[in-house]
Amino acid sequence: MITRRLNTLHILCVGILFLVTGCASDSIKSGYIEVDNGSLYYEELGKGEPIILIHGHSLDHRMWDTQFEVFAKQYRVIRYDSRGYGRSSQQQEGYQFTHAADLVKLMNALHIDKAHIVGLSMGGFIGADMLGYYPERVKSAVLASGNIRKSPGPSTPMDEEEATRREQEIAELKAKGVDVMKREWFEGLMNSGGTQRERMREPLWQMISDWSAWQPLHKEARVIIGLDAYAALKEKCPKVPVLLIAGNAPGNRYAEHPDILNYLPNGKQIVLDDCGHMLNMEQPEAFNAAVMEFITK
Question: pTM for the full model?
Fold first, then answer.
């Protein structure tokens, strides 16, 4: 397991070199893929090995605007809305599915056997679930600001005590007001950032404002495989190359030695200085360079 900090100036130079090479000549393709009891909206651009971008909670495919066309200069890039977000189907209370299984169905429909997976926050949880349950479908994984979510998986359904607690939380949220909750969530993400955080203010708020907020208003099933995936990961110790990316800013917390790396023989972590939770939006040049350097090795 390796953790290292990257000098922002160095990685920015790598990013600039990448930006001036190649050109994504294809037009953006978009559509819907059927999954069990729903559908997923996706967009794709470029040719070559596939990269799949997985967004964070409360957000949608637009969070990858500063990566989508850049990565498509060398790769076939797919970004999509997870179920319950963006243009994809809404979730249904009590209906059990997992975001990782949905992703596999998306890959099957697009005839993708293996892909480079890039996820941030909730997208990192989904990427880690893939490593635990479907490592054979992952060529490499970049997990930013999130990896294994240590919460119960589908093998431990919600019991009566948890359901009662969730009902209380939902009632409190409704009394507080969804708009207030969204604003507090947004400000928390903004406050995690470094000196360049203002560049993401408008697009970040637009996505959170558009978000339906279905998840905090309902008793959501175990859509993240979580501890079930962690148990599988510990048993398999997949040899997939994995890069964890964390942001080092006064308002952002991260683990110096994430537990998941104990079970990833080809895993490592890097830290981007002066950067918070929303790494790809706050410092896209540094983030893009780090991802491309890792994938192209």
Answer: 0.91
